[in-house]
Amino acid sequence: MTPNSLSRLLFGLLFGALAGAVVGATLQEPLTGAATGALAGTLLSIVIDTRRGLRLLDWLRGPQHLAAPRDEGFWGELAYRIERALRQKELAIGQERERLSQFLAAIEASPNGVMLLDGNDQIEWCNTVAAQHFGLDPQRDRLQRVTNLVRSPQFVAFLQAGAFDEPVTVPGPLGRSTISLLVRPYGEGMKLLLSQDITERERAEAMRRDFVANVSHEIRTPLTVLSGFVETLAQLPLTEPERQRVLALMSQQTGRMQALVGDLLTLAQLEGSPRPGADRWLALAPLLQRSLADAVALSAGRHAITLREAPELEVAGLEGELLSAVGNLLGNAVRYTPEGGRIELACSVLEDGRALIAVSDTGPGIAREHLPRLTERFYRVDGSRSRETGGTGLGLSIVKHVVQRHGGEIDIESEPGKGSTFKLLLPALRVRPAERALSARAEAAA
Ligand code: ADP
Questions:
Q1: Given its phi and psi angles, is residue 314 left (phi above 0), alpha (psi -120 to 50 degrees) or beta?
Q2: Residue 138, number of CB atoms within 10 A of its CB
Q3: Mean of pLDDT values over 173-195
Q4: Which among 386, 394, 399, 421 is the best mutation to test ligand 1's pocket, defined by most ligand atoms within 8 Å of the CB?
Q5: Measured in angstroms, how far is the CA atom of residue 245 from the centroid of ligand 1?
Q6: CA of 431 to the centre of ligand 1 (A)
Q7: pTM above 0.85, yes or no
Q8: Residue 298: CB partners within 8 Å, gap ≥ 6?
Q9: 1 pLDDT band (50/70/90 cuts)?
Q10: Cα Rg of the chain (Å, integer)
Q11: In this structure, are strands 313-316 and 431-433 parallel, antiparallel, or unpaired?
């Protein structure tokens, strides 16, 4: 019994006894009245106390989201203290939850996949990136055994072997990607799985290997021919015409090597230098005229080469690079179009403001299946024809690099037997009419 309840009990007892005595006195039974009053007062205070206690118990049994009963005295203070302790706990839990969700949001934002596995290799949690890497659903697949969902034999064998010192490479879902996987054990048999999509890196590495192999091959072939001729010159007594013929062939091979090294340097330069600024304007017409003159010289009268009426334009870019792009397209047209064919250079402005530079020829054309690969380094439709005519296999990849560096794109239309059209599209941002440039200059001068 608490002091508070005790005092209420005493008060009930005394007040009851007094009231009973007063009422009893009117009936000439003061003592019986006092005793009955004391009993009634005591009972009443016990009932009030019990009711308050039961109300608090009721509240405690419930979900406690409503306020605790606000009684006076002992039960009121008990309810208040219990409620305060509860609310503080709730607050602490809320803060912990908030911290956990921030922590998970940070892991969620990671560019890498993160997955937590329990001792039975069941998924405790995984971020969206990991779910994508393994083709999982972060919500639905929780608490599922990961090896039941990710069935790649490499993955299953890796997890079962338990040797996690080195990362392992596994195929992604549908086998279209390559995922690098690192496992770090923690806690009691738990595992942290870190995954990274390395498809692009692998592709770049494969391209680099192919490129080195191709360059080596392209250089070795003329070198082998050259060393054969050197031996011939050194060992065989040749007549003057024979010597001249061997020297001419040797010069052809050195020319081929020079062209290859030149194109390789151009590519390296294009890859290593910053993008051309959009504020260096140059007139397009003279640039096209120069390319045309070079093509006419290369053709040496074998083709009809024309420049269709071109609008007076200025483009923002690097003259050397644009000359090389247009020159490469015209060079290809001359080299692949049989004698008597027509080659046309044209330039126009599209409705959306882009500039279109097109080189069309009446040459052999190219089958549809080759078109997407034409701009790859060393890709040739007909290797021997390309080499015969002095091709390095790098021309179109240089062209593509140049237009892409200028924010544009290359489009190829061709059909076997019907000739080809190579289009360079430069973005509107880098194109302006020459008059505007003139008036801008006039304004600046005024
Ligand atoms: P190459 O030095 O071999 O000409 P390119 O990269 O310039 O290398 O061209 C790639 C391939 O595209 C060429 O080998 C050739 O088969 C084909 N090609 C390019 N331009 C033309 C064209 N105007 N007509 C027909 N085929 C072409």
A1: beta
A2: 17
A3: 91
A4: 386
A5: 28
A6: 28
A7: no
A8: 330, 331, 334, 335
A9: low
A10: 45
A11: antiparallel
Protein residue with least CA distance to atom 11, ligand 1: 380
336 touches ligand 1 (CB under 6 Å) = yes
The pair of three-digit structure tokens given for residue 108, joined into one six-digit string: 């969620």
Residue 395 Cβ < 6 Å to ligand 1: yes
Could you tell which of 263, 270, 305, 336 is best to mutate to test the pocket of ligand 1, judged by most ligand atoms within 8 Å of the CB?
336
pLDDT in tens, 25-47: 887 888 888 888 889 888 998 89
| Three-state SS at 335 | helix
- Are 113 and 194 in contact, with CB atoms under 8 Å apart? yes
CA of 263 to the centre of ligand 1 (A): 14
Cα 230 to Cα 222, 236, 252, 309, distances in angstroms? 12, 10, 14, 51
Task: With beta carbons less than 8 A apart as the criterion, state whether 70 and 76 touch.
Answer: yes
Does the CB atom of residue 386 touch ligand 1 within 6 A? yes
Q: State the average pLDDT over residues 10-24.
A: 84
Predicted confidence (pLDDT) per residue in 261-317, tens digit: 999 999 999 988 899 988 889 999 999 999 999 999 999 999 999 998 778 899 999
> pLDDT per residue over 120-140, tens digit each?
999 999 999 999 999 999 889
Ligand 1 atom at minimal distance to the Cα of residue 383: 14
Say yes or no: CB of residue 382 within 6 Å of ligand 1: yes
Give yes or no for a contact between 364 and 383, defined as CB atoms under 8 angstroms apart. no
CB neighbour burial string for 364-381, b if at least 16 within 10 angstroms, e if fewer: bbbeeeebeebbebbbbb
Atom of ligand 1 nearest to the CA of 422: 23
Mean pLDDT (whole number) for 343-357: 95
CA distance 119 to 126: 15
* pLDDT tops 60 at residue 7: yes
Which of 332, 362, 381 most suits a substitution to test ligand 1, by most atoms within 8 Å of the C-beta? 332
